[in-house]
C-alpha cells in the first residue's frame, strides 16, 4: 500500500478529531455535516483521474500512471465539498418547487437531488465553481 492509499484508508474512517472523508462523487449530505462533508482533494497533476494522457507522436496517445497520486486521483489533503460558508439566505419559490439562488442567480427545482441537497444549492455555476449557498426556502403563497 503506497502513501496515497494509506491516506485514503486512514481518512475514510470517522474519528472525532479526524473527520471522515470520501470521494466527491460519494459525498453524503447530512444535518450533522451541515450538508458540507469532507472530501478528498483532487490530484492537481491529473485532475483526479489517476492517469495522464501523453502525446507520443502523430495520432498516438498513451495513458500513464500519475506519478503524483499513484493512480488514486487524490492529493494528500481533504477539503469541504463546498467552499461557500456564507450565512443562509432566503429564497422564495417563483413557481411551485422552483427557486432562484440569491447567491449565483441560477434557478433550480428543490425536487432535483443533484441541484439541491436539502439545505445547500449544489449547482455548478460555470467558471464560478459549485455554489454551495445555504438557503432558507420559503413556499410560494397559494394562488
Strand order of the largest sheet: 1-4
Q: Identify low-pLDDT runs.
A: 14-18
First-last Cα distance: 62 Å
Silhouette = elongated
Please give a structural write-up.
The protein is mainly β. The chain has 2 domains: 3-80, no CATH class; 83-143, no CATH class. 6% of the residues lie in helices and 27% in strands. It has 1 helix and 8 strands. The strands form 4 sheets. Strands 1-4 form a two-stranded antiparallel sheet. It has a two-stranded antiparallel sheet with strand order 2-3. Strand 2 (51-57) and strand 3 form a beta hairpin. Residues 14-18 have low confidence and may be disordered.
Provide a compact summary of the structure.
The chain is mainly beta. The protein has one helix at residues 3-11, and strands spanning 38-42, 51-57, 60-65, 74-80, 89-92, 98-100, 107-109, 135-138.
List keywords for this structure.
143 residues, mainly beta, two-stranded antiparallel ribbon, two-stranded antiparallel sheet, 1 helix, 8 strands, 6% helix, 27% strand, elongated
Secondary structure: elements and pairs:
Blueprint: H1 3-11, E1 38-42, E2 51-57, E3 60-65, E4 74-80, E5 89-92, E6 98-100, E7 107-109, E8 135-138
Parallel strand pairs: 5-8
Antiparallel strand pairs: 1-4, 2-3, 6-7
Amino acid at each position: 500500500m503506497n502513501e496515497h492509499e494509506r491516506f485514503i484508508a486512514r481518512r475514510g474512517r470517522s474519528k472525532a478529531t479526524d473527520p471522515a472523508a470520501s470521494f466527491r462523487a460519494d459525498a453524503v449530505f447530512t444535518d450533522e455535516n451541515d450538508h458540507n462533508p469532507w472530501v478528498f482533494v483532487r490530484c492537481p497533476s491529473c485532475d483526479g483521474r489517476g492517469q495522464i494522457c501523453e502525446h507520443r507522436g502523430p495520432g498516438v496517445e498513451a495513458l500513464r500512471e500519475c506519478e503524483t497520486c499513484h493512480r488514486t486521483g487524490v492529493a494528500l489533503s481533504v477539503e469541504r465539498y463546498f467552499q461557500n460558508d456564507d450565512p443562509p439566505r432566503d429564497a422564495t419559490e417563483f413557481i411551485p418547487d422552483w427557486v432562484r439562488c440569491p447567491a449565483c442567480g441560477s434557478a433550480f427545482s428543490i425536487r432535483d437531488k443533484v441541484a439541491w441537497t436539502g439545505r445547500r444549492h449544489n449547482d455548478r455555476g460555470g467558471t464560478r465553481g459549485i455554489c454551495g449557498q445555504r438557503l432558507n426556502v420559503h413556499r410560494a403563497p397559494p394562488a
